[in-house]
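Changelog note: in this version the structure field was regenerated for every chain. One regenerated record is shown below for reference.
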Amino acid sequence: MSIYNGKNMKRIIFAAIALFCAFSLNAQAGSEKVRSITVDEAVILAADNNISLKRQRISLETLERRNKTSWNGVSPSASLSGSFTKPLDGIVTDMEAKQKYTYQMGASVSLSLTPSLYTSIRAASLQYESGKTSYEDAVRQIELNVRKLFYSLLYTKESMNLQRRNMETARIRYENNRDKYNRGQLSELDLLQSQYSYESLRPNIESAEIAYQNNIASFKQTLGLSQNEKIELSGSLSDAVPPESFSVNQTVEELPSIKKLKASIEQQENSLLATRFSAYGPSISASYSWGLGGNDSVEDFKQNQESHSLSLSLRIPLDGYLPWSNGANSIASQKATLQDLKLQLENERTSVQLNLQNSIKNILQKQSQMDLIDRNVELAQKTYDMTLTAYNHGSRDLLTLQSTADALLKAKTDRESKKFELISAVLDLENTLGLPFGTLGKEDK
């Protein structure tokens, strides 16, 4: 076999291997499953895999355990003691020589009662309730972020689809113009303009695709999914648009921000009461002890002694009655903090009412604009269709057709953008009201 034939054989083998690998990769890519994810599934994945939520769950379990055992302040303290002594051979005293061994045993129980016992139990309960509220707020914030990111990706995807359809239309127009040019029915300048109009759309679509893939990667990270997993979003912006009419039935006192401030005031009141108990309240202590001791002497004379003791004590602090004492200063400081929280609550009641009114007006305004935007899309579509017909008959130039195509694309893109803005505004309002996401207006039906 010649060297030339040997090289040809190697080329054939290499080509066969390359074709086999390419076929295997294509088959693997074709068999790779794509995971379809709805917005509700995305929320569940994020809630299960979010690290900060896992940490808050651990903190909440600690607060729950502390709340369940907060009564342990009334549990008495008990102890047992004992000793055994046996003299060893060697230097011993006369007394030790008469004894085989000595022993002692005892038990004691003590109990201390202070007025702050009530406030400590109350504080544990309030801290646990506050922990549950904080955890629920964190869950809602993650759900809000995931839903907004999901609908943002839907908007970006729909915008890219519109651009692709516009590019496909431009491609068909260019090919038609090329046929007309070959038949001598179109000038070279018009052909080049249509070619540029078609090819100039590609860079924008490629840039949008790269940005979309980067956002998808961030979305996977938020959900705790592997970057190698293929996903697609299931849903549309039109399905998430709220109904045209809705009502807000929550009172101001039921809003989450108001409830949180009320809980803070309740905690501060309990802390102030605990400080007052510490400064003014008496404390009672009681203890009981029992002891038994004895020895076993060489003269067979056993000595056993049993003892009992009970003690009671009462302590009444007087420093709190002095206006310059630490206790009095602490009480004054906590009173000021409590007053500040009450002023915050009063201000929040006014602010939240204004925010609700502005949010509702904003949503109603966006809803009223949707009908106008739909009519604008219909008008842009009719204008484009009429211009295209006129262009095909030679009564409109390519520049006019391209302008109407750009206007149609902008109208459709603006409509999807307004849908996303409306959905985001409704999500923010639901978050302010503390409603389950996606339910505003639907519970009225």
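Spot check on this record: The longest strand covers residues 99-113. Residues 115 and 277 are 6 Å apart (CA to CA).
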